[in-house]
Design brief:
16% of the residues are buried. The chain has one domain. The protein is of the alpha+beta class.
Length: 108
């Protein structure tokens, strides 16, 4: 019985990874992030709302996200992360509270 439960959990996890990659698009760059450290990333996906870039698991694990503002040479927190429009090629830094997989981001 215990083996069936573990197998079910493993299959569910594989299914979530598959769905996240499918949602990210064919050939998407995906990476697993380490929690509690800054990850400096470049967004490689199409322009869309910031929240739509992440699986629900990854979205709930975000502790902090800041974009780099080259004109002032400063890191700026997003005032409204859910509705912020992120553009292809945008550079930022992000901290997660748990190890999660994110797609369409490349570590810089």
């Amino acid at each position: 019985m215990r083996g069936k439960v573990i197998a079910g959990i493993v299959l569910a996890g594989i299914g979530l990874v598959f769905l996240a990659r499918k949602a990210a698009g064919e050939g998407a760059t995906c990476l697993t992030v380490t929690p509690n450290i800054y990850h400096y990333v470049t967004y490689l996906g199409p322009t869309k709302r910031f929240k739509e870039c992440f699986s629900p698991e990854a979205w709930n694990a975000i502790y902090s996200y800041e974009i780099y503002e080259p004109n002032s040479d400063e890191w700026v927190p997003l005032p409204d992360a859910e509705n912020y429009i992120i553009e292809h090629g945008q550079y930022g830094r992000i901290i997660f509270t748990a190890p999660v997989e994110i797609c369409n981001f490349e570590e810089a």
